[in-house]
Design brief:
CATH class of the largest domain: Alpha Beta
Structural class: alpha/beta
Helix content: 25-40%
Largest sheet: 6 strands, mixed
Order of helices and strands: EEEHEHEHHHEHEHEEHEHEEHEH
Number of helices: 11
Shape: globular
Strand content: 25-35%
CATH architecture of the largest domain: 3-Layer(aba) Sandwich
Number of domains: 2
CATH topology of the largest domain: Rossmann fold
Strand order of the largest sheet: 5-6-7-3-8-9
CATH superfamily of the largest domain: P-loop containing nucleotide triphosphate hydrolases
Distance between the termini: 46 Å
Number of strands: 13
């Protein structure tokens, strides 16, 4: 089946600055994809290209459509929450639902009201009386009430406390993900969303350094915990990263290291954070930590 997103040689420039550099990937249906990268890595530029806000070089289709040329049709089937949830402060929540009913042909007012009931927000509340976390949850409820095939979230929980972030992701997974739709999430809270993800895209200075499912990640990357006395032997095998773990040290490898190296430690599951650090930090920073 045709992927929901297909990018080939995607390049995006701001004058002389290259924000995305020859990026290629695809997202099939039914996936929850984490888009990871440091500030300035190109995450927001990629998301804005996906929703038709920015021009680019290369090839890009989203839901089988050209994002800029067919943007009206695209936005009928795509929900987008940028990094700042902006809702009119004067409006009551019920008025927002009425407004969305008139704006979007695939919006369900009944579904929006049902989702709002899962929050601590009342339909009679004015936006200006809501906390930032409540505003974000209202925004998600409105977007999730659209019968869309793809949701694009750019730092949706930025500035929220941990309980608000947990509530946001629970609503997202339980009420929107159904095995047919896909979600692309850009976030810095890698540890919090790792358990939700099926796939990950990592950007570093505009380049895509990893596009992989978490199942394949677990097979491909090997982490070995080891006694500090084995640090030199581990370093000699040229791991991607050496780091501290509880009770000792660990080394992360792309692929299985030689048998004699594996015998020096015990295999542990590398976290997504460890892998992110290994693939996106400057080479001169990747020195021995064990």
């Amino acid at each position: 089946m045709e992927p929901l997103i297909q990018a080939q040689g995607l390049t995006l420039r701001y004058g002389r600055k290259v924000a995305l550099d020859d990026v290629s990937f695809s997202v099939p249906k039914g996936r929850v994809v984490g888009l990871l990268g440091h500030n300035g890595a190109g995450k927001t530029s990629l998301m804005r290209a996906l929703v038709g806000q920015l021009g680019f070089e290369g090839q890009l289709t989203v839901l089988g459509l050209a994002p800029q040329r067919q943007r009206v049709q695209l936005l009928e089937q795509l929900s987008y929450i940028p990094d700042v949830a902006v809702l009119p402060r004067w409006a009551r929540v019920e008025q927002l639902i009425t407004l969305m009913s008139g704006l979007h042909p695939r919006f369900s007012a009944d579904r929006a009201r049902a989702l709002i009931k899962r929050t601590s927000v009342s339909l009679s509340d004015k936006v200006k009386s809501l906390s930032k976390g409540m505003v974000v949850q209202v925004h998600l409820a409105l977007m999730a009430a659209i019968d869309a095939r793809l949701m694009v979230l750019d730092e949706p929980t930025l500035g929220l406390d941990v309980l608000s972030r947990k509530a946001f992701y629970e609503m997202l997974i339980e009420e929107w993900c159904d095995g047919e739709r896909s979600v692309l999430i850009s976030t810095h809270q890698v540890e919090e969303i790792e358990a939700l993800l099926s796939d990950v895209l990592m950007l570093n200075e505009g380049k895509l350094v990893l596009a992989i499912s978490l199942e394949e990640m677990d097979r491909r990357f090997v982490a070995l915990s080891h006694d500090p006395a084995q640090a030199d032997a581990m370093a000699a095998a040229h791991p991607l990263l050496r780091y501290r773990v509880q009770g000792g040290s660990a080394a992360l490898f792309d692929g299985p290291p030689p048998d004699h190296v594996q015998a020096l430690g015990q295999r542990v599951r590398p976290s997504l954070v460890d892998l992110f650090v290994a693939l996106t930090r400057a080479p001169e920073m990747n020195r021995s930590q064990g």
